[in-house]
Amino acid sequence: MKTFKGKSEILNKKDQPSVIVTRKVPILVENKLKKHFRVKLNESDKKFSPSDLKEALRKADGLLCTVSDQLSSDIISTASKKTKIISNIGVGVSNISLNAAQKEQITVTNTPDVLTDATADVALFLILAVSRRTSYLEAKLRRNEWSGFSIVEDLGVSLKGKTLGIIGMGRIGKATAIRAQKALGMEIMFYNRSKISGLDFVAYQAATLDELLKESDVVSINAPGGAPQPIIKEADLLKMKPSAYLVNTARGDVIDQNALIKALTNKTIAGAGLDVFDNEPNVPRELIALENVTLLPHIGSATIETREAMGMLAVENLIAFFSNKLIPNRVI
Q: Averaged over 175-192, what is the pLDDT?
């Protein structure tokens, strides 16, 4: 097997399936991989180029990748492939062309459930941070521009009794709703493509996205990305209250990023809290310069415990596939 520049190869028994790992993973995950596979690890943690990904598909029986790896139809359709399974570390699989994978008869798996709480925690943090202007105020303090306590300056808004509108009432949406309701005293409204019943907390399901946008004081996006069009477009931002905030811990492509920058600049909405961006890791300078946003570098699942659990689940998917057993988290 050809060795990628900056990446190390670790050989196990010759009869074991070969797996290439596109990014550095926790030691526990490495050890489990080594036990079951002939594995090539990415010690440098340098992101694979498109040509690296194509070569990996040609050389390995399985690919363990992350949401940062863009596996387009062109890459997946590369000739002389050996790979039969793509085990993605992440809930969303918008980084993978599922149509191409299905056409090429490649199994795709993900890692749901284990990152629900960590991501919901970050969503709650962003709701608090943007409504209390903490990023702007911390920067002000660090610039030594704080003149002391004031009754009328540096004010945010209270969230108690305000409406949190959740787009996508899946596991993370529900966990975010519970936190906001119990910790902050917020009312919950949600929009979901299918009818949701049996919730163990009080929430109102909006009939349309327009209804949710018009009524919510905070809008949290918890729906998967990868659709041809963003969920939130310029026209949708205009339907929100001027006092409302937009929070995104899902995927960068669920929002028209240029339209959001325009809305924040013009104060069409009050602010935004973002953990994800279109075309990561590139974040527009215009967005960074705004004072009414809180920006995080895609850390929704970034706890030691969660990343270890995600990696281990991705390995379990690989083990099940190559053992001809039921795959725990098969997408296609």
A: 98
